[in-house]
Recover the amino acids of this structure.
């Protein structure tokens, strides 16, 4: 019926399983048997578990039955939450607005037949385009509500723990620390040598300037002594 309840139901479930791939097959079979389909799925191989994330669409009359079958395929239920949203009032109001706009559109078409000028025709056609867009948008909303109410959603996460887990690297021993610091010392010497090589032109220039300064100073002393002896 057109005016039947439009209730959107959603379930979020997380469960642990003993055999990940066997549980996946059971879940897929349960979905098919209950007339649903898998809208999206994702699998992950983590350090200590293999994990599946599935989004399921199922007819509303099979929603509860499928939830029970899925839960039965798991080893332990971690989390389960069911929510619902009643959109019946919005659906009815939107359908009423659509019908009202359709009646207005019919009157516009009648007026269009009697329009005497191009200006009147263009004005009516502009109003008709606006009405058509509003009716199309409202119709899309009612179709969405009908579809979501007919097919409920189950978001399922299931995982299998993998024995053993990756342990962090042990703290390095004394010998390892000595070796590491020795390597750091060598690296420092290498960097220092590179700096010295990069600065060799400045060192040569400095030596030359010191030599030149001393030579000039020595020349002045010799000149001073010669002048003294001449006197």
């Amino acid at each position: 019926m057109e005016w039947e309840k439009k209730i959107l139901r959603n379930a979020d479930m997380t469960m642990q399983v003993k055999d990940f791939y066997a549980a996946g097959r059971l879940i897929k079979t349960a979905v098919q048997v209950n007339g649903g389909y898998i809208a999206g799925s994702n699998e992950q191989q983590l350090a200590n578990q293999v994990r599946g994330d599935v989004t399921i669409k199922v007819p509303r009359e099979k929603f509860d039955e499928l939830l029970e079958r899925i839960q039965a395929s798991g080893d332990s239920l971690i989390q389960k939450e069911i929510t619902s949203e009643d959109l019946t009032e919005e659906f009815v109001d939107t359908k009423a607005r659509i019908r009202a706009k359709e009646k207005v559109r019919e009157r516009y078409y009648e007026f269009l037949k009697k329009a005497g000028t191009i200006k009147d025709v263009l004005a009516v056609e502009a109003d008709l385009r606006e009405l058509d867009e509003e009716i199309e948008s409202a119709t899309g909303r009612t179709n969405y509500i009908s579809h979501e109410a007919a097919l409920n959603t189950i978001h399922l996460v299931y995982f299998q723990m993998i024995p053993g887990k990756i342990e962090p690297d042990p703290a390095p021993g004394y010998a390892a620390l000595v070796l590491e610091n020795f390597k750091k010392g060598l690296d420092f010497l290498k960097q220092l040598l590179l700096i010295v090589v990069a600065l060799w032109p400045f060192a040569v220039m400095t030596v030359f300037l010191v030599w030149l300064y001393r030579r000039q100073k020595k020349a002045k002393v010799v000149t001073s002594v010669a002048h003294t002896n001449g006197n």
